[in-house]
C-alpha cells in the first residue's frame, strides 16, 4: 500500500470539527500523522465536506437485505416476519450468498460504513448437510467483504435449538433451522476455530463468537461458547430480550430472565455485546452494566418489527457502552440509527437531549469498532486504521448550518445519501459517491435478490 495524503476541508477530531486537516496514511493502512489548520499539500487527495472516522455497523445479517419491501406488505408480527426470513435463508448457497453479501457490503460502503459485524448462523446446506468445506458460507462472507473493500468481524454464531426443552435442554431445531445448527457447542467450536485460523491471515477480517439467543443455545452449552471467545480474546455477541415472548419462555424454563441466565453461565463481560436488550428488568440493566457488557441498539429494525424501545440511557448509565447496527437492513444508514436512538428516547420520555450529536457519533464509530474487536479504531488519530468517510455539507439536506455544527448536521440532518467518500486502510472504496470496485451496486443488489425470489 502506498503512503497517501488526504486533505479534509473539515474533519471531526476528538469531539470538535477542525478545518484543513491532513491525514497521512502509512503503508500498513494506519494513520501516520493527523494535522489540523493546513493548506492543501501538493499531491494530496482533497475531501470536500466533513470527514468522520469510518462508521461501524455492529450488527448485520446480510441476507435479510433480500427481504426489504417484501415484509412491509400486510400486517404480520415479528414471528410471521421470521417465517419469511427462514424461506429466504433456505434458498441461499455459498455462491448466491457471496453475490448478495458483496452487494450489501458495497451498499454499506456507500453509507460510510468501514467495518461490519456479521452475525452469521447460516452455516450448512438446507437440511443440515455439511458442505465439502464446512465453512463455505462463512468464507463467502469474508470474500464478499474483501470484494466490497470493507473490514468484517464475522461473529460465528452458535444456533443449536428451536427453543427451551425439558430440564434445561434445548428443543431440537425445526426443519428450516437445521442448516443453522452444528449439533453441539463443541462441534460449533471446532468449525469456528477452523474459520478463525483461516481468517487470521486476512488483513480485513476477524472472527468472533455469538450465541444466537437463549432460545437457540441450551443453558448447558452457553459456557462452551463463552469459553471459546474468552480463550481467543474474541468479541462475543448475543441477541437479548428482543421480544417479551423470549423472556416469558426463559422464565418458565429456568426461573430467571435471559440476562440473568447469560450472567450465570459466564456469557456477560467486557468483551460481550448484547444486541437489542429491549425488554429488561432493572436488575438486568444493572447486570449488563456491572459486567461492562456493551449493548448494540438497532432502532430502525426494532421499529420495523414493533419490538419496542430498549432502555439505552439506563444501560449507558449502568456502565454499558452503546453501539449501533442496521440488523435486518430495512434501512442501511448508521446516521439514521444514531439519531433514532435519541429521538426514540425523546418520544418515550417527552424530554430532549439524552445524548449529544458527538456522543451518538461515538456509538456509531469508536464504541462500535471496539464491540467488534477493534479497540482504538473509529478515531482520526495516529496509529488508528486509516478508515474514514466524508459527508457532503452542500446537499439539500446539509447545506446551511455553519461547519462547526458539522456533528449536529451529520447526525440530525444527513443521510447515507450524503456520503461522498469512504476510505478503508488508506484506500478509496467510495469516490465521489461511487463504489470503486462494485461499479453498479443497485444492479448487483437487484440481480442477487431477484435470483433468490425466482
Ligand atoms: Zn439480529
Strand order of the largest sheet: 3-2-1-4-15-16-17-18
Measured as a percent range, the helix fraction is: 25-40%
The small-molecule ligands in this entry are: zinc ion
Calculate the terminal CA-CA distance, rounded to whole Å. Answer: 42 Å
What structural category arises from helix and sheet content? alpha/beta
What would you say this structure looks like, in words?
With 454 residues, the chain is of the alpha/beta class. The protein has helices at residues 78-89, 94-110, 136-148, 185-199, 219-232, 244-254, 258-264, 282-291, 299-304, 312-318, 334-349, 357-364, 366-371, 406-412, 441-453; strands at 5-13, 16-25, 31-35, 45-53, 55-60, 113-120, 151-158, 163-164, 170-171, 205-211, 236-240, 272-276, 294-297, 322-324, 388-391, 419-424, 427-431, 434-435. Bound molecules: zinc ion.
SSE blueprint and pairings:
Layout (H helix, E strand, L loop, with lengths): L4 E9 L2 E10 L5 E5 L9 E9 L1 E6 L17 H12 L4 H17 L2 E8 L15 H13 L2 E8 L4 E2 L5 E2 L13 H15 L5 E7 L7 H14 L3 E5 L3 H11 L3 H7 L7 E5 L5 H10 L2 E4 L1 H6 L7 H7 L3 E3 L9 H16 L7 H8 L1 H6 L16 E4 L14 H7 L6 E6 L2 E5 L2 E2 L5 H13 L1
Parallel strand pairs: 1-4, 5-6, 6-7, 7-10, 10-11, 11-12, 12-13, 13-14
Antiparallel strand pairs: 1-2, 2-3, 4-15, 8-9, 15-16, 16-17, 17-18
List keywords for this structure.
454 residues, alpha/beta, eight-stranded mixed β-sheet, eight-stranded parallel β-sheet, 15 helices, binds zinc ion
Amino acid at each position: 500500500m502506498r503512503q497517501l495524503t488526504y486533505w479534509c476541508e473539515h474533519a471531526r477530531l476528538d469531539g470538535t470539527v477542525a478545518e484543513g486537516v491532513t491525514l497521512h496514511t502509512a503503508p500498513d493502512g494506519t494513520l501516520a500523522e493527523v494535522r489540523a489548520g493546513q493548506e492543501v499539500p501538493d499531491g494530496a487527495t482533497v475531501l470536500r465536506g466533513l470527514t468522520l472516522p469510518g462508521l461501524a455497523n455492529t450488527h448485520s445479517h446480510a441476507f435479510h437485505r433480500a427481504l426489504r419491501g417484501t415484509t412491509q406488505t400486510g400486517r404480520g408480527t415479528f414471528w410471521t416476519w421470521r417465517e419469511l426470513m427462514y424461506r429466504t435463508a433456505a434458498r441461499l448457497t455459498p455462491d448466491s450468498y457471496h453475490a448478495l453479501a458483496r452487494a450489501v457490503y458495497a451498499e454499506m460502503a456507500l453509507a460510510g460504513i468501514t467495518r461490519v459485524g456479521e452475525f452469521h448462523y447460516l452455516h450448512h446446506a438446507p437440511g443440515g448437510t455439511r458442505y465439502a468445506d464446512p465453512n463455505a458460507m462463512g468464507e463467502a462472507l469474508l470474500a464478499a467483504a474483501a470484494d466490497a473493500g470493507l473490514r468484517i468481524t464475522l461473529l460465528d454464531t452458535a444456533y443449536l435449538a428451536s427453543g427451551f426443552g425439558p430440564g434445561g435442554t434445548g428443543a431440537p431445531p425445526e426443519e428450516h433451522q437445521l442448516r443453522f445448527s452444528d449439533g453441539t457447542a463443541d462441534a460449533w467450536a471446532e468449525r469456528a476455530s477452523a474459520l478463525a485460523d483461516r481468517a487470521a491471515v486476512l488483513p480485513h477480517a476477524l472472527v468472533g463468537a455469538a450465541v444466537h439467543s437463549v432460545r437457540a443455545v441450551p443453558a448447558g452449552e452457553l459456557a462452551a461458547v463463552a469459553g471459546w471467545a474468552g480463550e481467543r480474546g474474541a468479541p462475543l455477541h448475543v441477541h437479548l430480550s428482543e421480544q417479551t415472548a423470549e423472556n416469558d419462555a426463559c422464565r418458565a424454563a429456568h426461573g430467571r430472565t435471559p440476562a440473568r441466565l447469560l450472567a450465570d453461565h459466564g456469557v456477560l463481560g467486557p468483551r460481550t455485546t448484547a444486541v437489542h436488550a429491549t425488554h429488561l428488568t432493572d436488575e438486568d440493566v444493572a447486570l449488563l452494566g456491572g459486567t461492562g457488557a456493551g449493548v448494540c441498539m438497532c432502532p430502525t429494525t426494532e421499529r420495523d418489527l414493533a419490538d419496542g424501545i430498549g432502555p439505552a440511557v439506563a444501560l449507558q448509565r449502568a456502565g454499558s457502552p452503546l453501539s449501533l447496527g442496521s440488523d435486518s437492513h430495512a434501512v442501511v444508514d448508521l446516521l439514521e440509527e444514531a439519531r433514532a436512538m435519541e429521538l426514540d428516547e425523546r418520544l418515550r420520555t417527552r424530554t430532549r437531549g439524552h445524548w449529544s450529536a458527538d456522543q451518538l457519533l461515538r456509538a456509531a464509530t469508536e464504541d462500535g469498532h471496539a464491540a467488534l474487536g477493534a479497540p482504538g479504531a473509529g478515531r482520526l488519530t495516529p496509529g488508528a486504521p486509516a478508515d474514514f468517510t466524508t459527508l457532503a455539507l452542500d446537499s439539500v439536506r446539509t447545506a446551511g448550518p455553519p461547519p462547526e455544527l458539522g456533528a449536529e448536521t451529520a447526525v440530525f440532518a444527513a443521510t447515507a445519501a450524503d456520503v461522498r467518500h469512504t476510505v478503508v486502510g488508506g484506500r478509496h472504496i467510495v469516490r465521489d459517491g461511487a463504489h470503486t470496485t462494485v461499479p453498479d451496486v443497485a444492479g448487483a443488489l437487484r440481480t442477487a435478490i431477484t435470483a433468490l425470489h425466482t
